[in-house]
Amino acid sequence: MIASITTKTQWDLFLKQVDSYDFYHTYDYHELCAKPDEHPILITYTSKDTLIGLPFLLRDIPDTSFKDMTSVYGYVGPILKTLDKNFDHLLFAKDFNTYLKDQNIISVFSRLNPFVDNQFDILQSIGEIKRVGQVVNINLNSSLEIQRQNYQRRIKTQINKARRFCKVSNASTKEEMSEFIKIYYENMDRVQANNSYYFDTDYFFRFLDSDTLDTSLLLVKLIDTNEIIAGAMFIKTNNIVQYHLSGSKEGYLDIAPVKLLIDEMRIRATEEGGYNYFNLGGGYGSQNDSLLRFKLSFSKQVHKFCIWKHIVDTEIYNELSYNSEETEKDYFPRYRSSN
Fold it and tell me: What tens digit of pLDDT does each residue of 144-165 get?
């Protein structure tokens, strides 16, 4: 049976029933990410003891009566309870497609989560799964000593230097949070980031105020002056720690404060216990760019990063895509490539 959930109360209750989920699957994060024309929706499927949830942002396709669904930024994909060997994938695919067609939904897109089990199994009969890169993970089941042994030698030296000059603390005031936001924007300017990374101020404060998102905002301060020179947001959910957003002042890049922040969260999460994965994420998009190499200097353990895309009605999809830019053939859904 297919149903949909659009309220926080029901969404939160559903999450309590599944085997595992990440903060990217929560209602709070979907609400944070939703643009004015996007609406959080959790599609659920129930069959005997199996329970499946697929979270999306539902959107109207401009100037049409059709809709599509996309995932929030990050690592999403389906979540579930009890997927056994007798699960009927074809029946699930049939019921899901029937729901999509009844709702005039033309296409579906999601980034998948490498740390949630059985996502490939759930989606095997629906659409296309494509590997687009890799993400770097620090294994928090290993001891602190073994984790550090996997660091590149240069990283160890830089972190040791940073600890001589700096201290790490949790942001505790609105002023400290505002200073981090300012540093984050400066960092985005320096790397010439896409506009989509310039979250408004409210985004950060709502993140930290959420009763669902277990967010740690760690700051690096100079020991001598107490000046904040860097910060990073980390989110803990079940057995996963995610490295979300960070920034450092340009004048202190030689101290490598962001590397210190990653090292500090690694230590704290391991000592706290209960966490298996510390996901540092991937690169900018290419297979071996500078950002990915930076993350690989902490760990050589990588996981596949995949996307899932599904065209519900090929004929309508092609009609909508007729005037899309030829230079963006890989963009999905194609009809939004010129938006």
Answer: 999 999 999 999 999 999 999 9
